[in-house]
Structures are given as structure tokens and as C-alpha cells.
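S.,

Sequence below, as promised.
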Amino acid sequence: MALTSEDLLAISEMMDKKLQPINDRLDKVDDTLNTLKYNQEHMSEKLKGIEVTMNYNDYHLSHDIKKLHEDVDTIAEILKINDMIPVAK
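The prediction came back faster than expected:
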């Protein structure tokens, strides 16, 4: 007994109907994964921005501390020259 085209079409439609809930669930999983991927990419970009800001701040903070140290040394020398603080021996 051979199956007719109509039989094959009917079987195909039944299979499609049975598989539809699985396809719907897979679509939801796919949407969730796409959203998660977008969120990860967004967070990655934010972290890169934070890293750049931190490097910028670190550089300028180091520079400012060095300048402050030089200023304190200058003030200490002026105070020593004017005998306003004792000179360490």
C-alpha cells in the first residue's frame, strides 16, 4: 500500500500541528538569548568606558600628586630658608 500525496500532506500537517508548541517555545528561547546577548554587549561597552575613565583619572591623579609633592617640597625649602622650621641634621 502506497501513500498518496494527499496522505503525505495530511501527515505533514499533523506533524506541523504537533510540533508548533515546540517551535513556539524555541522562538521564546531564541528571543531570550538575543536579549541576553544585547545586554552583555551593552554592559561590555559600559565597562570599556569605565576602564577608559579610570585610566584617565589614574593618570591625572598621579600627575596631580607629583605636582603637590613638588609644591610641598618648595614650601618646605622656603620655610627652611627663612628659619621657620627646623632643619633636620
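The chain has one helix and no strands.

Coffee later?
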